Amino acid sequence: MEFVRKKCPCSIFRIPLILEPTKDDFNLKDKIKLNIPVWIRIPDLILWSKTTIEKIATSVGTPVAVVERTILKDTLDGPKVQVIINVMAEPRCKVKVIMPKEEKFIQEIEYDFLPKYCRLYQEFDHFNDCCLGLE
Fold first, then answer.
1. How far apart are CA 7 and CA 27, in angstroms?
2. C-alpha 77 chain-centroid distance
3. What are phi and psi of 29, to 5 degrees?
4. Which among 33, 45, 34 has a CA at the least distance from the CA of 77?
5. CA 126 to chain centre
6. 10 Å Cβ neighbour count for 28?
7. Which residues touch 122 (CB under 8 Å, ≥6 apart)?
8. Is the pTM of this model over 0.85?
9. How far apart are CA 133 and CA 135, in angstroms?
10. Beta-sheet pairing, 35-41 with 62-66
11. Distance of CA 81 to the CA centre of its chain
12. Which of 107, 100, 104 is nearest to 79 (CA)?
């Protein structure tokens, strides 16, 4: 299991496979901080540079990997970066970017996949906006 876990992030049908070792005192009722790898895309990026992409990715989560076409600037879809995010926190869909000459703009972030996670029940079966407990 340790060999497989170290080779992650892995996915099955583009859905992240999360393998974490459990502690001896593991309890299902305890709150867990769940970090998973997801791919983000930064569409219509004005300043396409390594520094800009890194800063935007870092504001979303912890950068893990970059698609080769992003490095070569060989895509019209915008940079694509894999980041590790905390599923229990609300995903960032917009990031404020400040340009070198103090110009500011809002950059949108698109996710390839987000797990269905309800923050009210802390379960992986539906999103907050579909939660019957919030009605």
1. 26
2. 18
3. -80, -15
4. 45
5. 18
6. 5
7. 31, 88
8. no
9. 6
10. unpaired
11. 9
12. 107
Smallest CA-to-CA distance from 89 within 6, 50, 33 is with 33
Are 126 and 116 in contact by the 8 Å Cβ rule? The answer is: yes
Domain boundaries along the sequence of the chain: 32-134
Residue-by-residue pLDDT tens, the chain, 135 positions: 555 555 555 667 766 666 666 777 777 666 666 788 888 999 988 777 888 888 899 999 999 888 877 777 777 778 889 899 888 788 888 998 887 777 888 999 999 888 777 777 767 666 666 666 555
Asked whether the beta carbons of 81 and 19 are under 8 A apart, the reply is no
Q: Which residues lie closer than 8 Å to 83 by C-beta, 6 or more apart?
A: 37, 38, 40, 57, 60, 61, 62, 63, 64
CA–CA distance, 27 with 121 (Å, rounded to integer): 17
Tokens of 1: 């299991």
